[in-house]
Amino acid sequence: MTDSPDLAAAKRLLDAAKDAGFTFQRIAAGEDAPLRGLRQSTEWLDEIHLGGFWAPQSCTAIRRRRLSLVVPGGLPVAARVSGDALTVLHTVVTDWPA
Q1: Scanning 1, 16, 35, 60, which has the fewest C-beta atoms within 10 Å of its C-beta?
Q2: 5-19 vs 85-95: helix axis angle to the nearest 10?
């Protein structure tokens, strides 16, 4: 069976995110289980949650600035995106440099 154009694009973006330093793990059992991706650098902590490839607003990503100081409430959020998998992955891969 051939993937739809949107699914093929999402798979390419997922591969591009991996090439950009994200590591992904399934957060439940099953092939279609949600994925969580993390990337850490000296400046940033980036996290992606892919709840499903087609459900609107089921995917999110958060970019937090890493600081040398301890900040109450956690690291400050520098960017956030939510939407479908294509929107979230495209934003993270193209707009959030490693």
Answers
A1: 1
A2: 40
**Other C-beta atoms lying within 10 Å of the C-beta of residue 43:** 13
- 50, 35 Cβ separation under 8 angstroms: yes
Q: How confident is the model at residue 53 (pLDDT cuts 50, 70, 90)?
A: low
- Dihedral sign of CA atoms 70, 47, 60, 79 in order: positive
Report the predicted TM-score, pTM, of the whole model to 2 decimal places: 0.85
Nearest to 89 by CA among 19, 1, 4, 2: 19
pLDDT digits (tens, 9 = 90+) for 27-49: 888 777 899 999 999 999 999 99
DSSP string, 8-44: HHHHHHHHHHHHTT-EEEESSSSTT--EEEEEE-SSE
